[in-house]
Amino acid sequence: MKLTSRDLPKLWLPLLAALAMIAVASLLVWGSQLDAGKAEHERNAAMTTKNQIEQRLRQVRTEEQEIRERTQLLQQLQNSGITGDEKRLDWMEMLRETQRELRIPGMSYEFGAQTSLDKAGDASYAWFSSPLRLQLRLLHEEDLINFLARIQKNAKALVIVRACKLSPLPRQADGRAAMAQFGAECEMHWLTIRPASDKK
Length: 200
Description:
Blueprint: H1 8-80, H2 88-102, E1 106-111, E2 115-116, E3 125-138, H3 141-154, E4 158-168, E5 182-195
Antiparallel strand pairs: 1-3, 2-3, 3-5, 4-5
């Protein structure tokens, strides 16, 4: 079948309808693509917000755990007597009591001036050190270990033993055995902690 010039007017309406349908279909495809892009953008934004919220919650939980741990540590320090001013008189009494309990033949000691260990000055709590030079006369070598262990357990301070020197004592001039067999000399630090606002 051949098309003639007389048939063209009859085809305008179907052609226009076809073009209109193509245009509508194109608009629908373009609109659906816009909606899909918008939905993807909104989904990505929602995921970003969700991740930020979860990260913040994890951070808050971590901070809460750190606060709990610091509170527990501070409570433990307070219970052990480490917090507050140095208790030098109590320390000296405890040294003498430990000497009596362990039957240490001889003891002499000297506390030095207390000094601050915190140089930055921006911490909530500050550590202080009271040096101690301790000399003991002992019957047995293990007496030194027992004495130091008792001190570290009972002292209202964190006791750090920096160095200890143990040596046998010379025999008496008349050849008799001395009451003490060993001499010990120790350098120690007694640490306390208190709020930085209480620094002297």
